[in-house]
């Protein structure tokens, strides 16, 4: 089968468009904003308060009391030995009842 002949179409002529010219816009000038100056606040002056004078406290003098004499307690071996009276030989000894 023979291929059908495709006719070659001529390219359409595209007219060259002129580039648009943009108008030159000047840069806007930004006004300089002045910096705020903060006024210096003077520090308050604190009046000097005099320190109170504390009177010196003196310790009262305690009277010295005379030492009281403690009586000496005799040592056990210094005590006289008790004398046990001797019972007569015929002293009756009651007999205890047996439980």
* DSSP strand count: 0
Helix content: under 10%
Return residue spans where pLDDT drops below 50 for at least 5 consecutive residues. Answer: none
**Roughly what is the average pLDDT, rounded to an integer?**
82
**In what range is the share of β-strand residues?**
under 5%
Task: List key phrases describing it.
single chain; little secondary structure; 0% helix; elongated
Task: Give a structural overview.
Helices cover 0% and strands 0% of the residues. The chain is low in regular secondary structure and 99 residues long. The mean pLDDT is 82. Residues 69-80 have a biased composition (Basic and acidic residues). Residues 1-31, 41-53 have a biased composition (Pro residues). Residues 1-99 are annotated as: Disordered.
